[in-house]
Amino acid sequence: MADTLRVVLVEDHPIFREGLRALVVSSLGYQVVGEAEDGQQAVEMCRECAPDLVLMDLSLPRMNGIEAAERIKEQAPRTIILAVTVHLDDEYIAAAFQAGIDGYVLKDANRSEIIEAIRTVVSGRPYLSPEVSEKVIRGFVKGSTEKEADAASTPLTPRELEVLKLVAEGHTNRAIGDRLFISVKTVEKHRASLMAKLDLHSPQALTAYAFEKGLIGRRPS
């Protein structure tokens, strides 16, 4: 990675984005190569600018930050993504890490913590705000005791559970078909069936459900 990191800022509130820009440039000496106000723009900008680091809000117009992060990682897996968000909900945390983010810091963190978060993920280590880390630990302890009961109570067939797990891990329909030795059309049928049974209609919702049921623990490396 270059000495001067190339950074893209993704934030729809101009004042907060200006604060991030000042922090990145003045305190860390990085280069801001692009700024986006929505998820779709972020994906396109990252494709054009090839940044080393993306600082991304999760609540964005047009395409949310979780889906944008997933697409950015698909096109450039080595791009580092730090979520900078207000969300402390379990489903956001789980879905964000399943999408491939490298760190999660809350917007109300002070300047020094945000700098620490950035330096941590840039060094190749994950970062969680203390409040987020506490929720993850509590959820893990609770989930480990309920995992078997939850898995047993699911309305899904064994094959649908396999498809759900692979969807939650971020695999495409074609990759799932290759792993399970079934056609893409069959994968789509299983996926439609499990979404109907669970009344969940987005990859993020499926990921959160899989995380809560103990089918996945952390995003695959």
CATH topology-level name of the largest domain: Rossmann fold
- How many distinct beta strands? 6
- The radius of gyration over CA amounts to 18 Å
Strand order of the largest sheet: 2-1-3-4-5-6
First-to-last CA distance:
19 Å
Write the layout of secondary structure elements.
Blueprint: E1 6-10, H1 14-27, E2 31-36, H2 39-49, E3 53-56, H3 65-75, E4 80-85, H4 90-99, E5 103-106, H5 111-122, E6 127-128, H6 130-153, H7 158-168, H8 173-180, H9 184-198, H10 203-212
Parallel strand pairs: 1-2, 1-3, 3-4, 4-5, 5-6
Helix pairs in contact: 2-3, 3-4, 4-10, 7-9, 7-10, 8-9
Protein described:
With 221 residues, this protein is α/β, with parallel strands linked by helices. It has two domains: 6-133, Response regulator (Rossmann fold, 3-Layer(aba) Sandwich); 154-212, Winged helix-like DNA-binding domain superfamily/Winged helix DNA-binding domain (Arc Repressor Mutant, subunit A). It is 57% helix and 12% strand. It has ten helices and six strands; from the N terminus they run E-H-E-H-E-H-E-H-E-H-E-H-H-H-H-H. The chain has helices at 14-27, 39-49, 65-75, 90-99, 111-122, 130-153, 158-168, 173-180, 184-198, 203-212, and strands at residues 6-10, 31-36, 53-56, 80-85, 103-106, 127-128. A six-stranded parallel β-sheet has the order 2-1-3-4-5-6, with helices on both faces. Strand 1 (6-10), helix 1 (14-27) and strand 2 (31-36) form a beta-alpha-beta unit. The longest helix is centred in the middle third of the chain and has 24 residues, at 130-153.
